[in-house]
Write a structure and sequence with these properties.
The protein is of the alpha+beta class. The chain has two domains: about 170 residues, Alpha-D-Glucose-1,6-Bisphosphate, Chain A, domain 4; about 120 residues, Outer membrane protein assembly factor BamC (TATA-Binding Protein), CATH 3.30.310. Helix content is about 25%, strand content about 25%. The protein contains six helices and 14 strands. The strands form two sheets. Strands 1, 2, 3, 4, 5, 6, 7 and 8 form an eight-stranded antiparallel β-sheet that branches. Helix 2 crosses helix 3 and helix 3 runs parallel beside helix 4. About 15% of the residues are buried. It is found in: Cell outer membrane.
């Protein structure tokens, strides 16, 4: 009985020590490699030749590799970079672990956004940074260690776990216009341990598999952070924003909204609709909105509770509105006439009560 238990334990231990190469090839016998190609059967005289078909014959392609047979044929699943972030893509046919990002918002430079996400991902997973050269756009991680139980058989009664440790180098390449950038990852160091014993090094590793896996995790984190940021932004827009009278960067009278540009811009469009402005044209990059003031079109129900609650003391005419981010997390809104002349301080003060009231209202329709 003791001998049987010992034998089973030994077999389980051997199964647990499968090398990386053994896990990448098919199980079973390779006797089929020794078999000769079957030729057409020899028929005796007087017997009609049967009809043959080549429907299932494998053609000899131009790039057919005869050496990919038996143990030389890898049966692992392909590792594909997944561009899960809005505005991301991969180059068709590329075999490198690289993903391209396009700038879709102007709240911060694209390269800063990518690096902030990557460093945040590393911090969340307790991965150190050995070096980071922002000028050269290169970051080298410390050891990324994880336990891989997927390679353990259900017969592996010793509960052995494969520990994988890897270091990666991330490189960011920007296009000249700065609105597109490629994030590339390369495996720099690798070691695999089984029950405390190193069983594989960098030469044994499937570099692309490790590079693609870590890159896909970075991309997924980037996607999740963008979703959270967008949800937070929409909540801020709906909750209403506080404002005060102040001055823009040029010293002109303006409304100062207590929110950044990306939140204030869509909120102001809702405010315009509530106050009776029609937006005729806009340029978010330049922060310029062309509007026509038509006045508030109140319903019969509104008239029962008094009219003119949102009516501005303003001539029905065309105007221009300039937005600009100031003081880090605030936005200046400057009203101007068609000649780009800013409203006088007295006019800004007269309109403030109605403007600030609507700007601070909660749950405006989006």
């Amino acid at each position: 009985m003791t001998r049987n238990v010992l034998l089973v334990s030994l077999l389980a231990g051997l199964a647990a020590c499968n090398s990386i190469e053994e896990r990448q090839i098919a199980n079973g016998s390779y006797d089929y490699l020794k078999r000769e190609h079957l030729s057409a059967p020899k028929l005796p005289e007087g017997v009609d030749t049967p009809e043959y078909t080549n429907d299932f014959a494998i053609p000899n392609g131009e790039k057919q590799q005869q050496i990919l047979l038996g143990k030389k044929l890898k049966v692992v699943a392909p590792h594909v970079v997944m561009p899960m972030v809005t505005g991301s893509h991969i180059e068709e046919g590329s075999k490198e672990a690289t993903v391209w990002f396009d700038q879709i918002t102007d709240d911060k430079p694209l390269d800063n956004d990518i690096w902030d996400n990557l460093i945040g991902f590393l911090e969340k997973n307790n991965i150190g940074v050995l070096s980071f050269d922002k000028d050269k756009q290169v970051l080298l991680t410390d050891w990324f260690v994880y336990n891989d139980e997927s390679n353990s058989s259900w017969l592996d009664w010793d509960k052995g776990v494969t520990e994988v440790a890897a270091r990666f180098e991330f490189t960011l390449t920007k296009k000249s216009h700065g609105r597109s950038a490629a994030l590339h990852v390369e495996l720099k160091e690798y070691k695999e341990s089984r029950n405390g014993e190193v069983v594989a090094g960098l030469a044994d590793a499937n570099a692309r598999a490790n590079e693609v896996n870590i890159l896909n995790r970075v991309i997924a984190n980037y996607r999740d952070q963008r979703v959270l940021t967008e949800v937070k932004r929409i909540q801020e827009i709906r909750e209403g924003l506080q404002s005060e009278i102040g001055f823009n960067a040029k010293g002109q009278p303006a409304y100062i909204v207590d929110a950044n540009y990306t939140v204030t811009w869509p909120r102001l469009l809702l405010v315009f609709r509530k106050l009776g402005f029609d937006v005729k044209d806009l340029d978010q990059t330049a922060g310029l909105i062309f509007v026509e003031y038509k006045g508030v079109d109140e319903s019969w129900w509104d008239s029962l509770w008094g009219s003119g609650a949102n009516e501005l003391d303003l001539k029905k005419d065309d105007y221009r509105v300039q937005l600009e981010q100031i003081d880090g997390n605030k936005t200046a809104i400057t009203f101007m006439n068609e000649d780009n002349e800013p409203f006088a301080a007295e006019k800004v003060k007269d309109l403030y009560d109605v403007f600030s009231d609507v700007m601070s209202q909660k749950n405006l329709d989006i």
